[in-house]
Amino acid sequence: MLIGKSVGEVGLTTIYGSKAATHLLEVEQVLKGNPGEGNLRISSMPQTCFGSESYLDGDPLDTSQRVIIFETKQGGEWFTMTPAQGVLPFPKDSKLPFH
Question: What is the pTM of this model?
Fold first, then answer.
């Protein structure tokens, strides 16, 4: 789990047979886990139950906003934990939504 923001899309990958957009994430703070040092390549988990459309509501990492990301590692690559709840907006001066 970490706080950061996307600095841009850097490619595509595939998970569960669906395309996933990969972003370069500027990591501000690691809250839990060990994603390594510096920027992180992470993909938005696609919505795999809806045919060929990966992001019905848009790619959650396609934002310049500061966010909290719940991530997991699959096959050596980082992904958001879920399609719908892997990324939460987290504006500056916000308090963590948990303890």
Answer: 0.87
